[in-house]
Specification:
The structure holds 2 protein chains of 2 kinds. Chain A is mostly helical. The N terminus of chain A is likely disordered. Chain B has 2 domains: 53 residues, no CATH class; 210 residues, no CATH class. In chain B, helix 2 packs antiparallel against helix 3, helix 5 packs antiparallel against helix 6 and helix 6 crosses helix 8. The chains are: A mainly alpha, B alpha+beta.
Chain lengths: 332, 281
């Protein structure tokens, strides 16, 4: 493999064959679902074609000659003919790197963070040509690093992984810190360590956004605590939330009765009911329940059903349900 | 007067809480470097409650332990332990058939021993095995060694006449799932060896692995663990029996037996598929 024959920075050259049926070289420009391992996929298809052919060696030779891409041709030769061990070493290294998941993840993160092939090779103590082979065969993304939209779908899609997400969100600095863990020689002070930790918290926040998670109570808590960190330059308290006390049967009944009211009305009703004596509270809740049931009965009336009968039926069944649940004579 | 007395107390309490978090985080990030925390763990440590922060720290510490050991030394301490292995009582509960995963790990061997990554060499080796091993194992060997997709591997095997008939898609899916199980179990075994060195339960008899909640649910996909048997982390023992295999699942915290997930031979996707084809033409 000649490392000078293809410039890793430039997009792949167009097909150099006389074969008109050869598919065009894919790219995010032509295919929104661009797969960075398209060369390996092409190679697989060629392998299947060879397997189907009656004269396999002739077909293999034909396909390697009618090359759609120089790297696919090289891969094909490495697999089907007997070239020198030098010619085989780069595809072999690339295949091994792909099988060793951690190595593949690091290389891919470094590519997304725009490290040069020399820098990546230095990290792994290998030759530049091996990294180039990996990129060409399994991760042809370098020419498209400026397309952030495409990169995001790649990093956070089915093929994405944690290291890729760090590289996308935090670039070179993030990869140095999180993926490669280049440690500084001096001891870190607490502030510096905390800034790294807060960076990871930021990753978690990004991940929630990227996973399209609806905002929830957790977000509010995080927001409050993060604002505390930024405003006071202090860490938030380390304490557990108070556990919610279980509701009494009376409270549960009230909750059920006022479920259809707006939060403001629920609060007013709660204040009113809390001022009554026990007997009056029970009656008030029954009243609320009747209101709730007749409210739904009015809706039925609009649909053409008998509002009074339906309301009483619904109320009776609700009362029976209450009676069976609470043991009170709720339907009296 | 009363409010003047209360204010310093409240301030003290606030200071104490701040100090508590600061001390905890200082201890946590001096033990595990902050960049090693997963994003969610970092958020729990910095922003979560006491329990969440403690759990995040424990998770990160365990991950760090597994990562900081080199491939060669992982599990060595466990393997070299020559003491008599401890036998642990097996779980009595058996996971119901509807809650079990359709994965059948005994379909494929523990590992594929083919060093080459080049297709012509791999095919040469497979040709020497062809008469002796079933087609789905040939498929597993080719796909694992070459990295080519399973469907294409099935075509290549047929094209090179290593198998007499096309491999049905159901068999391809079942074999791929079995290989995924083996790979995940291997990772779990590595984690167990680190966990056992860290927590020191002694040398346990069997083929043990360690999984957290998410990992166990992905190990045999589609498994449904009853709510009362759910734990945050689990130990598993893969037992080979005369009628297939069984995965015994234990709670990692107290080594409490939870349930068994059997993989009986009669439910092997290959056998069951053939039976169904005979019954429903």
């Amino acid at each position: 493999m000649n490392s000078n024959s293809t410039d890793p920075i430039e997009p792949s050259p167009p097909p150099q064959t006389g074969n008109n049926d050869a598919p065009a070289v894919p790219s995010p420009r032509t295919d929104p679902d661009y797969q960075p391992d398209w060369r390996h996929k092409w190679f697989e298809q060629d392998c299947v074609e060879v397997a189907r052919a009656a004269d396999k060696s002739a077909k293999a030779e034909e396909l390697s000659e009618l090359t759609k891409d120089p790297f696919v041709s090289l891969l094909f030769k490495a697999h089907f003919s007997e070239p020198t061990s030098e010619a085989r070493s780069a595809p072999k290294w690339a295949s091994r790197a792909r099988d060793t998941e951690q190595v593949a993840h690091i290389i891919e993160a470094m590519v997304v963070a725009d490290y040069s092939t020399e820098e990546i090779a230095k990290e792994f103590g290998t030759d530049k040509i091996n990294i180039e082979a990996y990129e060409k065969i399994f991760f042809d993304v370098r020419p498209y690093l400026q397309f952030r939209g495409y990169l995001k779908t790649l990093c956070f899609g089915k093929r994405g992984h944690c290291a890729l997400q760090v590289a996308f969100n935090r670039g070179y600095a993030g990869v140095e810190e999180v993926v490669l863990r280049h440690k500084v020689k001096r001891n870190r002070d607490l502030k510096e360590s905390l800034s790294v930790l807060i960076g990871r918290v930021e990753d978690a926040v990004f991940a929630r956004e990227d996973n399209n998670m609806a905002s929830s109570k957790i977000d509010l808590e995080w927001l409050l605590r993060l604002s505390q960190i930024s405003a006071l330059n202090q860490l938030p308290y380390l304490q557990d939330r108070e556990k919610e006390k279980p509701l009494t049967p009376q409270q549960e009944l009230f909750k059920k009765a006022t479920a259809n009211l707006s939060p403001g009305k629920q609060e007013i009703a709660a204040i009113l009911v809390s001022n009554f004596c026990h007997q009056a509270q029970r009656l008030a809740i029954q009243f609320l329940m009747r209101r709730t049931v007749s409210g739904s009965a009015q809706q039925n009336a609009q649909n053409g059903s008998d509002p009074v009968n339906d309301a009483w039926d619904a109320f009776e069944s609700a009362a029976r349900e209450l009676e069976s649940e609470n043991g009170h004579r709720a339907a009296s | 007067m009363e409010s003047k007395q209360q204010r310093p107390k409240r301030r003290d309490a606030a200071q104490r809480r701040l100090r508590r978090r600061r001390l905890f985080i200082t201890a946590a990030i001096s033990s595990v470097p902050p960049e090693n925390y997963a994003p969610n763990d970092a958020a729990a440590l910095a922003l979560g409650s006491m329990n969440e922060a403690k759990w995040a720290y424990k998770q990160a510490k365990r991950r760090e332990l597994v990562r900081s050991q080199s491939e060669e030394t992982r599990g060595d301490a466990f393997v070299k332990d020559s003491s008599t292995p401890i036998r642990i009582a097996r779980p009595n509960r058996v996971l119901s058939r509807l809650n079990r995963s359709p994965t059948f790990p005994p379909l494929v061997p523990e590992e594929v021993k083919i060093e080459s990554v080049f297709l012509n060499e791999i095919l040469g080796m497979l040709r020497s095995y062809a008469g002796n091993i079933p087609p789905h194992q040939l498929l597993d060997a080719l796909a694992t060694a070459s990295g080519i997709s399973w469907e294409n591997c099935a075509e290549i095997l047929l094209g090179y006449e290593l198998v007499a008939h096309p491999i049905p898609p159901g068999h391809i899916r079942a074999t791929r799932a079995a290989r995924a199980f083996r790979n995940r179990y291997r990772d779990g075994r590595t984690r167990y060896s680190t966990w056992s060195v860290d927590t020191g339960p002694g040398r346990l008899e069997g083929d043990w692995a360690y999984f957290d909640e998410e990992d166990l649910e992905a190990l045999p996909p589609e498994i449904i663990i009853p709510k009362r048997l759910k734990r945050r982390d689990y130990l598993t023992n893969y037992v080979i029996e005369s009628d297939g295999a069984v995965l015994d699942v234990y709670g990692a915290a107290k080594l409490r037996p939870l349930f068994r997930h059997p993989f009986p031979q009669k439910f092997s996707p290959l056998v069951l598929g053939a039976l169904l084809r005979n019954v429903i033409p």
